[in-house]
Design goal:
Blueprint (H helix, E strand, L loop, with lengths): L17 H15 L3 H14 L4 H14 L2 H14 L4 H13 L3 H14 L4 H13 L3 H14 L4 H13 L3 H14 L4 H14 L2 H14 L4 H13 L3 H14 L3 H13 L3 H14 L4 H14 L2 H8 L5 H7 L5 E2 L9 E5 L4 H7 L2 H7 L3 E5 L5 H4 L5 E5 L9 E4 L3 H5 L17 H12 L6 E6 L9 H4 L15 E5 L14 H4 L10 H8 L4 E5 L2 H8 L4 E5 L13 E2 L2 E9 L7 E2 L9
Parallel strand pairs: 1-5, 2-3, 2-5, 3-4, 6-7, 6-8, 8-9, 9-11
Antiparallel strand pairs: 10-11, 11-12
Helix pairs in contact: 1-2, 2-3, 3-4, 3-5, 4-5, 5-6, 5-7, 6-7, 7-8, 7-9, 8-9, 9-10, 9-11, 10-11, 11-12, 11-13, 12-13, 13-14, 14-15, 15-16, 15-17, 16-17, 17-18, 20-28, 24-27
Length: 597
């Protein structure tokens, strides 16, 4: 945070009268006490008597800045500096005003002027650091904060800002030391505990983070940001009702778009879909371009099956930074224009499961007349090259000329996909024939008389809903007792270690060490009779290959699985088994669950 230089009560040296001096003193006294309304008439009367009184202009400008009228504040302080260019405090405060107006370069010039006049001016050093940090110059900002603290070791704002900059560089231990210093200097600093909570959260220390946010709220109950961050943390840990409670308090304090979307999301995670919609609509009424509100509203509409409005909202989901990361410079984005004879670049986005679900649109775009190239992540290249409709697949930056480009998950919006028109012909992904043959020998050696079933019980732990999406292998132990089934582990990542203590039936056919990419996994899956999986990329891959797939879904399942269905219009070979209550074992499906026997 920036540190505002407080008015002082020193007597002005400027004549013309004792009465003018008394007005300035009265203004500064009221101002310093935080009574802005009382201070203003004294400043105005003083300036009416002497419009060239530099100190009155300066601190009346400070008052206007504190009220949010930064333009008027800039005029007053600039006039003061014309009269007295040696006032370091005025230069520093003029920098604060420039920063508030978004003029960071001007702010830094002002701070530099203040520091040339007074090199040990701690407030100006701190404010200079804030301006540098706002432009991403973290190391330079840290240097300014350290100089500020060398001049004034008790400057709380500089310690807080130093901690923030260190956190942004991933130096969380050093940042926490800064916040501990602040707490020692000011035991009532809610900001110190709030910032410490953020640092602990970044380190993965959930217990310490929760304690810090709660301490911040104990010191300042109306700390909306602390309510939001505490809610987000406990929501991540699965307590969506607790998150809702925190978000409601934040919304009551600050009903801004971010807080409204957080509250809506916590309701959606609890399955309260009708309640969540209003919060997204409210957020968009406040900010029609708020990407997170568009995305969450899109997920809700798509889950309901309202594809017409859902895809339209989904196309507005982009934050500027996310869009810039995939956009193709110099090429127009496709929004549904005629494609006959045009070259189109289809750009993959989000997770592997999203890729597999939407790769089907390459064939659709080719049928519309386009020559379709695809840019995807490296592990998908071998598979993608064999997809019908793909002219060329590559990873990295575009190195060719195109008429249009389009994010892969925008295509349904552009072609008007409805539930009844989903291009669901499978397979549209094909494994390498030679690899299929190689795997067949290994799979057959495990026993031709048994049904061969692949198993994936866990997804990426970084996924927001992974706590409810994933299972432990022990949850499926009873399946190991089936006599006519040979189990094939398809699980990669940390959860694979669970095989170590699993029943022999699950450990007998573990070829995951030889699954180096999705092309290897696809070839193995083609030799299986069934894949049972939680909602992961492997489930999408197997279904895109046209293999039978059973997907185990949590009660708060993803938008793509719609509501209350046990089938998927995206994948005709898929069955869905839905959890009936969030966090509780047990699934619901109208099909027979004993088909393995």
């Amino acid at each position: 945070m920036e540190h505002q230089f407080q008015p002082d009560s020193a007597h002005t040296d400027a004549p013309p009268s004792a009465y003018l001096t008394s007005l300035i003193d009265a203004a500064l006294e009221a101002h310093q006490a935080g009574r802005l309304d009382a201070a203003e008439p004294f400043y105005r009367e003083a300036l009416a008597l002497d419009p060239t009184h530099a100190k009155a202009l300066h601190y009346f400008g400070v008052l206007q800045h504190q009220r949010g009228d930064h333009g008027f504040a800039a005029e007053l302080m600039s006039e003061a500096l014309k009269l007295d260019r040696m006032d370091a405090a005025c230069w520093s405060n003029r920098g604060l005003v420039a920063a508030a107006l978004g003029h960071l370069q001007e702010a830094m010039i002002c701070y530099d002027q203040a520091l040339q006049l007074q090199p040990d001016f701690a407030d100006a050093r701190n404010n200079f650091g804030v301006a540098l940090q706002a432009q991403g110059a973290l190391e330079e900002a840290i240097g300014q904060y350290q100089l500020a603290l060398a001049a004034n070791p008790s400057l709380v704002d500089a310690h807080l800002n130093l901690g923030t900059a260190l956190s942004k560089l991933g130096r969380y231990g050093d940042a926490l030391a800064c916040y501990q210093t602040v707490s020692a200097l000011d035991s009532q600093s809610a900001e110190a505990h709030f910032n410490a909570g953020n640092a602990y959260n970044a380190q993965g220390d959930d217990v310490a983070a929760i304690a810090s946010f709660e301490r911040a709220l104990a010191l300042r109950g109306n700390y909306a940001e602390a309510h939001i961050n505490l809610g987000s943390l406990i929501g991540k840990l699965g307590d969506y009702a607790g998150a809702e409670s925190q978000y409601r308090r934040a919304v009551a304090l600050k009903p801004n778009p971010t807080n409204l979307v957080c509250l809506g999301g916590s309701l959606g995670a609890q399955g309260r879909l009708d309640e969540e919609e209003g919060f997204y609509r409210h957020a968009l009424a406040l900010d029609p371009d708020y990407a997170d509100a568009h995305q969450n509203l899109a997920w809700l509409l798509l889950k309901r099956g309202d594809y017409k409005h859902g895809w339209a909202e989904f196309a507005k989901r982009w934050r500027k930074s996310d869009y810039a990361a995939i956009a193709v410079p110099g090429v127009a984005e496709w929004h549904g224009e005629p494609l006959d004879g045009r070259r189109l670049l289809l750009v993959g986005e989000q997770g592997f499961g999203d890729h597999f679900q939407f790769l089907r649109y390459a064939r659709v775009l080719e049928q519309l007349g386009a020559t379709v190239d695809i840019c995807v992540r490296q592990p998908l290249l071998q598979l993608v090259e064999r997809i019908p409709g793909v002219h060329r697949a590559f990873s990295g930056k575009a190195d060719d000329q195109y008429d249009f480009w389009v994010p892969m998950m925008n295509v349904p919006s552009c072609v008007g996909t409805e539930l009844s028109t989903i291009p669901a012909d499978v397979p549209y992904v094909f494994a390498d024939k030679a690899k299929i043959k190689t795997w067949r020998k290994r799979v057959d050696a495990a026993g031709k008389s048994k049904r061969k079933v692949g198993l994936v019980w866990s997804g990426s732990p970084t996924f927001g809903n992974d706590r409810y999406r994933s299972m432990t292998l022990a949850d499926l132990d009873m399946l190991s007792e089936l006599k006519n089934v040979a189990w094939y582990a398809l699980q990669k990542g940390p959860a694979h270690d669970q095989l170590t203590h699993a029943p022999e039936a699950f450990r007998a056919h573990d070829f995951t060490a030889d699954l180096h990419n999705f092309d290897d996994t696809a070839a193995l899956v083609m030799n299986l009779d069934l894949v049972i999986a939680v909602d992961t990329g492997v489930a999408h891959l197997a279904a895109a290959l046209g293999k039978p797939v059973w997907v185990l879904l949590p009660a708060n399942s993803d938008w793509r699985w719609l509501e209350a269905r046990n089938d998927s219009p995206w994948y005709p070979t898929m069955k869905l088994f839905r959890q009936t209550m969030l966090g509780r074992a047990g699934a619901s499906n109208s099909g027979k669950s004993r088909e393995l026997e």
